[in-house]
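User: I'm writing a short report section on ligand binding and want a predicted complex to refer to. Could you take this sequence and zinc ion and write out the structure as tokens? A short remark afterwards would be nice.
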Amino acid sequence: MNPRHSVTISILLLALLILSGSRPTTRAFAEQSSTGTTAGKSDRVTYIHCGTLIDEKSQAPRRDALIEIAGDKIRSVAGFPAGFSKPADAAFIDLGRETCLPGLIDTHTHVLLQGDQRRGQYEEQILKWSISNRTIRATQAARWALEYGFTTIRDLETEGAYYADVAVRDAIRQGVIPGPRMFVVTRALDVTGAYPLLGYAPEITVPHGVQVVDGPAECRKAVREQISYGADWIKVYADQRVSTEDGVVHSIPTFTQEEFAAIVDETHRERHKVAAHAMGLEGVHSAVEAGVDSIEHGAYISDDDIKTMVAHGTWYVPTLYIFVYADELHTAEGFPGWKGGTEIHAETFRRALKAGVKIAFGTDAGGFEWTVNPAKEFPLMVQYGMTPAQAIHAATVSASELLQMQDKIGSVEPGKFADLVAAPGNPLSDVGALEHVDFVMKEGVVYKK
Ligand SMILES: [Zn+2]
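Assistant: Sure. The structure tokens for the complex follow:
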């Protein structure tokens, strides 16, 4: 998200945030070396008793399950035997009153952003915060993401912080700081004149939230550069200047099809994937025709493009909550917002769901402050037509498939990483229970208990 679609926001919003946000408290790791890495790397065995287990493999939830974890992997899943007593050298965690699920996956985040919807918020981060400052805050965002229950995230660009996401990803991977497993895109791509900061005098050079490229050669070169510096995915901004008219969101495509083709071809040639921010009819069409791998936001998608997405297996990451969040702020501000765009988005979601488009959970966290739990996306997915089980599937199995990690994460079964969360209540009847995750394990290490 960026401030182009944002509308100016103000102060009432703070009140909203305080009311709606559940700020995670800083917690010591329950099971840690200095960084929480050692336990998961050893062969230490941990047994977990789950009152209910949604394993994302069985047809129905399992009652009273026993998960055996060895080191960072799940070794077995079975019924909890009467009179169970753990071996002396193993650990035991009793979640008998909880519902356990695979670690959640958010496929659209921005750890380098600390909210961009309020007036001046984006400019302040780009112009006044050093990249060092922003990176320190990103480490806090990453920790909070993990504590909310997101054990894996795809972080969709640094908004002017260059390659800082690579550093955060690697620090987590190396056990220097706690955080989710990260897939990153680094700088993202857009054309001249399309991406903030904009509107300054021509003789003043201002930074932009993306790498600006024009022409197929520059596009191809930037893809090579970003991948060489550590990008897992490439992100493009497919459109700009969004407007709504007669139930349709319109936009102006940024890249020519020739430029777009160069980006997709070079990225795929290097065996990476392309995510496209695309809001309106024209931008989505341009991105779908170019053969991108995921459409981000997709406030309006034509029925023809939905058909193409189904045929090509193109992912849809709708990021519903950020728009509701923005609308609430705009209403509080007395600002008209984007004229029914949120309703159009809901209707697009329903059409895509009905047509069988592959939908993965993604929130645009960072566009809203990290003090707000991104799990607020779940109830909206249900409100717009998914069952709670489908919404959970989108944040586990489907998201793991988008990341091509389905052999390692996304379900609770032997051989996969021991990424587990638990919450009181039954998320299959009230998916809002996932806003209250109180147990988080990643790769066999407990980060919240
Ligand atoms: Zn975003």
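A remark for your report: The longest strand covers residues 91-102. Confidence is low (pLDDT under 50) at residues 3-40.
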